[in-house]
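comment on this one:
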Amino acid sequence: MTLRDLLEFHADPWHTSAQVWHRLAQGIDDAAEQVIRSTRDVGDAWPGGAGSAAAVRRATALRAEVSNAYNPAKRIADAMEHHAYAMAGLRRQAEEIVASARQAGYHVDLATGVTTAPPSADMAGGLDRSSRSTESVLQYLPTVVDHARAQDDATANRISVNVPSPGAGFGTGQLDGVSRAVLEAQSERSPAEIHAWWESLTPLQQEQVLREFPELVGRMDGIPISDRDVANRSLLERERSLFQQQLSTIEAREDFLWKALQQGRFSEVYPDAEDPRTALENELRKLASERVELPGKLRGIDAISTRLHDSSLPEAYLIGFSSHGDGRAVVSVGDPDTADNVLTYVPGTGEHLSKVGAGLERADIMAKDTAWAARGERTSVVYWYGYDAPDKIFPDAGLDSYAEGGGPALDSFQSGLRATHDGGIPSHNTVLGHSYGSTVIGHAARSPDFDADAVVFVGSPGVDVNHASDLTGVHPDQIWATTAEHDIIRRVPNWDVVHGNDPSELDFGARVFASDPGNPDDEAATHSAYWNRENIARKNIALIATSQLG
């Protein structure tokens, strides 16, 4: 490369080529996902025989080849893009040096880079001040050209080692799998960082992680919704099988013990116990304690599974799931990653894995309402039971601890929605909390980094701040609240007694919208009536979630 080559460098063709290779890499990535998902079950569908074994081997090799072709294509695209910017910068430096030299009367040989001072520069055997300044600048010109040559060689090398060839093939190398330790380390990072890391993996590496560590991937904010859905569905089925097996084992053992108890065969069951009858009765009590939660958890799992497979309703995605303790479940109606408007619904006191069916029904109701209000835009509604909700109204719902634990989790989830959203235009994200769910939002929205365009408090006992301006993560004009006239929540003392000022009071500073007054003879039912048919609150919530309510 000569100085002339550098001065004649044009970045646009390199940017254009980089875009072509980026599109190729993305196409390979999409194709790899299709190949992986369409061939992963070949062994199950065709369980035996030489043909089956050959098909499994071929599918495995094909998945590796298509998946591993992504990285070489992506590296070529990145190399071209980097080359364009680096060489453009070096060209600007060379142009400035040459222009400065010519202005001072120097001759610059573009082929060799040699510069010759003008005759007037030699005065009494030395250079004048102006010429000495120009000479000091000119000394950098060979260095700039050397950098350009090095950059050109480096780019040529990066392309040559990645470009496809008949001899070496393209993407035939096998990359290492991702370990549990790597995945656990990534889970400590921010959703944006997790998303960048996930996108750096090949499709085959992503598939390996989804297959081997679904319990970790499924709960990581920053991983795309469609991938979390794959992981959590796997986890859901695994947990269902485990609980059914546990329940069957316990019931069979209980049946055996009861018969032994009725027939007085204590010593046969506990031959070495000092008091065989007491030992048998103690085991029965222990088994009853172990069994008591299993039907409820299975009921919740069945409710989630039924919704995921209901083809008569919009497609649903399982974004989060856990059966530990009271359980957790995060289910979206529609894909938040592709939606124009995303409404996240946070339930309140008494939420439990065994009761998720009611929350899923509310999500479907709001999905229908927002689809109506969106005027053709894509919408998604997320049922977010991602925190430990209070079990009882008294004393649990009066404590801040549940919201203190749930707020950061909700904050992270919202950041994850931002990180994984597709397209250049961010979605309009609204977070709605019902009852104690609004208190959780209050704790999340105190953070100035809270990723929500609007928050909605429905039947709120308070959000642990006394004014909307304290919720620094949301613009004050987009803080909304409603409480029905006959909602039993109005009996919660206002101001600092429990959870602070009622958000639906005018002095809180939220924008209060209408809901039906409810039944004065059944205030408890009114607290859950906001999603009843014809309740004006439903329409208002949909309009807020789609930016239609001014």
Remarks:
- The first strand starts at residue 107 and ends at 108.
- Residues 225-262 form the longest helix (38 residues).
- The radius of gyration is 33 Å.
- Confidence is low (pLDDT under 50) at residues 123-129.
